[in-house]
């Protein structure tokens, strides 16, 4: 999720209202992104309070959300938030080895989400979605294919979105060559 900087309180209120109405917070939820609330790190420590921070904390409280990221950027701010419902266990650390050049405002994060009982998580799949049958796949071929993959398109991508697109494209291509699709979800 990305919220542009310097928005009015009314726009932030509208965004939080929309999220409240669009997302079912009674099931496990994770929201990640650049919320551009510059004062979060100061407000959390109690050295400052603002109207925007109050609106944000009200949104968290009403939806039983917890903010997990405490990694400061080079300006001693936290712009990238990792919000989850209280039922999820999440750890956030600084990722030292990055695929693309790290930007001053957004340190690379290593986010680990622990799902204890996957049967109780209501994952939604389209009825036409095919899934790979890894049980009958050529896993050794997949490993060799990945080991021989040219990762330069990912590493040379200047922007993280393009790097992710290239990464997904490479992974999907490798998997489709070695693993056949099985039954449909549904």
UniProtKB/TrEMBL annotation:
InterPro entries: Endo/exonu/phosph_ase_sf (IPR036691). This is Endonuclease/exonuclease/phosphatase domain-containing protein. The lineage of its organism: Eukaryota, Metazoa, Ecdysozoa, Arthropoda, Hexapoda.
